[in-house]
Amino acid sequence: MANVSDDLMMHKDNDPNAFGMFECFFCAASTQMFAVRMVDQDWGSPGVVWLRCMSCRRGFVLNDLYGLAPSTTPLDVPQGLDADTESTWNEVRSCLSARAFTASVMMCRKLLMHMAVEEGLPAKNEKDFAPTFVQCIDHLQAEGVITKRNRKWVDRIKDIGNEANHDLASIDKDQATTVATFTRQLLHEVYELPFLEANT
Ligand SMILES: [Zn+2]
């Protein structure tokens, strides 16, 4: 590349490829953003895209897999998580902010399985297999982490998770947010409450 700007391009205002929907960190709305300059590429392919919020006019940068920066990362991080659980939970949050909704539900299922093992379910069964998702849910219910009252949520996660496995286009933002909010609540029960009890 002869010049540092050779692989950059400026879109015209009427170019439909110049626009994408993102969550704006500043005006907190799902809003249209205009790609001010982008590497000659399709959306989602590796590279860098600089964006401008059409509502508040502030700027963002999209670095391929790292998502939008600054980003509206939803939900918070509970206290008392081990490093593995914390990084998995942060991956859920990153998936949500990057609109990777199917991936976020799959990560939530993984966390639920993690929590079942944390609550005493053997990581391998007698056949040396990892427990199934249903076995994990049953165990969390037997231990009282999942109560009768929130079993409905769990069935929903089961259904959404299955949809995610078998039908890639089916998870929307509301479903993914519901699952993540519920998972956050379970993280509170399994990790945060014992941590707070031990540290107060
Ligand atoms: Zn904005």
UniProtKB/TrEMBL annotation:
InterPro entries for the chain: DUF4145
Highest taxon, organism lineage: Bacteria
Annotated ranges, domain DUF4145: 90-183
Protein name as it appears in the record: DUF4145 domain-containing protein
Organism: Rhodococcoides kroppenstedtii
Organism taxonomic ancestry: Bacteria, Bacillati, Actinomycetota, Actinomycetes, Mycobacteriales
